Amino acid sequence: MSTAPLDVLADFPAIPAGWAYLDTAATSQKPRPVIDAITRGYGETYATVHRGVYQRSADMTLAFEAARARVAAFIGGKPEEVVFVRGATEGINLVAQSWAATQLKPGDRILLSALEHHSNIVPWYMAAERVGAAIDVVPLTADHRIDLDAMAAMLTPAHKLVALAHVSNVLGSVLDARRATELAHAVGAKILIDGCQAVARLPVDVAAIGCDFYVFSGHKLYGPTGIGVLWGRYDLLDAMPPWQGGGSMIDRVSFEKISYAPPPGRFEAGTPHIVGVLGLHAAIDYVAGLGLDRIEAHEAALVRSARAALSQINSVRLFGPDDSAGIVSFAVEGVHPHDVATILDEGNVAIRAGHHCAQPLMELLEVPATARASFGVYNGADDIAALVEGIQRVTRIFG
Ligand code: PMP
């Protein structure tokens, strides 16, 4: 398999020649079609949605709802199951506050994994505290995947919800989401999959997975910040109370009685991020045009090449499985990850160093932080070479 770029670098005006951008897991760079959609949205077609009777607003409403249908088709759901939120964080908080806070009772249990991002830990912690539920943590296998055999042994009828990352933002480990869903459903638990790192890296089909909720952020999918998606099974969404009140989410309002709109409108109080939604539509068209299968294969090749090269350097310790999706975390013996990232930056290589909003995972790996290189459609063999050269420089500097 080749590590040649997908030949899309020219689509990304914010990536100058010679800059190895290896922080796509934090946020992806934006391709021209996304930038154009945003510029057009504000500069040519702008108006509010769902309210205006004038033509411009009616057209914008059509474009807004067409984006919802595009999101649904992209992940194998139905348009009425797609709730626009600010990002994955907001999507998880919505489920934690609307579903969990009303469905869970004292003594119920929530199952998370040891590699979750803080945004898939803290909202559950808050909900559990509120209702008197408890949280259990699935351990990882020796090669840093969520241990589904251990999960099978841990699950009990007291578990009402399982929430797991589809792809770890630190390790790149890919979850067998279908098996995880079957295990959760076998004890009657619902399952939420955090697809933040998955949607831009592999084909996702919520119907094939069979899960109950799926969340992701637009900005990690080559789209704008401030827009994301909560997908939920319609019967579940329909039984959930609204979590924020305001305009657009109601059926009728009087001071005596309020009735709410059906999903997804019930969960979209206030004027939405209209142009963000248009940008997300363009981003989905862009990645779908490249093909998620191709992107997955391309990033798998980049990961293999990076891991092979880094493992040749004695002082480098690699985390995560060899077949991780687009993300490689590592440590250089005796050098703080922040120093690694700073020296790499001097060589025009942008990586992330820190706890990556996964402090429990850092504790498990027994490190304060990791250095993380994460790939996107624009990366190629030259970026891996620049990374490896930078790490060799780090080892020379630190002896
Ligand atoms: N989950 C995972 C796995 C992530 O990587 C991130 C972002 N780093 C989030 C959740 C939160 O996404 P956002 O900050 O866009 O809401």
TrEMBL record:
It holds the Pfam family Aminotran_5. Keywords: Pyridoxal phosphate, Transferase. Its EC number is 2.8.1.7. Residues 21-387 form the Aminotransferase class V domain. PROSITE patterns: AA_TRANSFER_CLASS_5. One of its GO terms (biological process) is cysteine metabolic process. This is Cysteine desulfurase. It comes from Sphingomonas hengshuiensis.
